[in-house]
Amino acid sequence: MDVPYDITSYVRVLKLASTPSWQEFSQIAKIAGAGILLVGLLGFLIFVIMIPITGGL
């Protein structure tokens, strides 16, 4: 593990990183929110389907 090389690579990545614009951020937030809602809905549907199979809560 070459520590000076690791630090320079981290610095290089930080220099390339930039703050997203408001439009880019809002689009990413919408997509992430839709994904969270989709996973939650899928889990709820599996829960509703399993209630009759297992005989209740």
UniProtKB/TrEMBL annotation:
Gene Ontology MF: a single term: protein transmembrane transporter activity
SUPFAM superfamilies tied to this protein: Preprotein translocase SecE subunit
Alphabetized UniProt keyword annotations: Cell membrane, Membrane, Protein transport, Translocation, Transmembrane, Transmembrane helix, Transport
Top-level taxon in the UniProt lineage: Archaea
Transmembrane intervals: 31-53
GO-annotated cellular components: endomembrane system; plasma membrane
Membrane disposition: Single-pass membrane protein
Subcellular location(s) of the protein: Cell membrane; Endomembrane system
Alphabetized InterPro entries for the sequence: Prot_translocase_SecE_dom_sf, Translocase_Sec61-g, Translocase_SecE/Sec61-g
Subunit and partners: Component of the Sec protein translocase complex. Heterotrimer consisting of SecY (alpha), SecG (beta) and SecE (gamma) subunits. The heterotrimers can form oligomers, although 1 heterotrimer is thought to be able to translocate proteins. Interacts with the ribosome. May interact with SecDF, and other proteins may be involved.
Alphabetized HAMAP family for the sequence: SecE
Role of this protein: Essential subunit of the Sec protein translocation channel SecYEG. Clamps together the 2 halves of SecY. May contact the channel plug during translocation.
Similarity annotation: Belongs to the SecE/SEC61-gamma family.
Protein name in UniProt: Protein translocase subunit SecE
Gene: secE
